[in-house]
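TASK: fixed-backbone design
INPUT:
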């Protein structure tokens, strides 16, 4: 596998198509803001798919070693009813 970088920044409304091999079972929510929580929770419940949310200042680096959070703000992982904060340089499990 190669390396893939995704960022929460960019133009509003921009969508990115990603090969699922890179991000395992996760869906990606770019341009995350706190106000998005109800929509993300609804998505997780409806599609039974975990979500990685990326604020503007945050990205993920996907490589053979895993999914690593990079940037100045944390990423958030939604799984079921749980929301987990993942800080810079930490890996999403």
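OUTPUT:
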């Amino acid at each position: 596998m190669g390396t893939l970088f995704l960022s929460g920044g960019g133009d509003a409304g921009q969508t990115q198509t990603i090969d699922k091999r890179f991000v395992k079972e996760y869906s990606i929510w770019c341009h995350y803001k706190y106000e998005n929580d109800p929509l993300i929770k609804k998505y997780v419940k409806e599609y039974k798919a975990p979500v990685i949310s990326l604020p503007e200042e945050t990205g993920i680096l996907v490589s053979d070693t895993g999914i690593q959070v990079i940037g100045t703000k944390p990423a958030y992982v939604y799984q079921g009813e749980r929301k987990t904060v993942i800080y810079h340089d930490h890996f999403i499990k």
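COMMENT: The beta strands are 4-7, 27-30, 51-54, 58-63, 66-71, 75-79, 82-86, 91-92.
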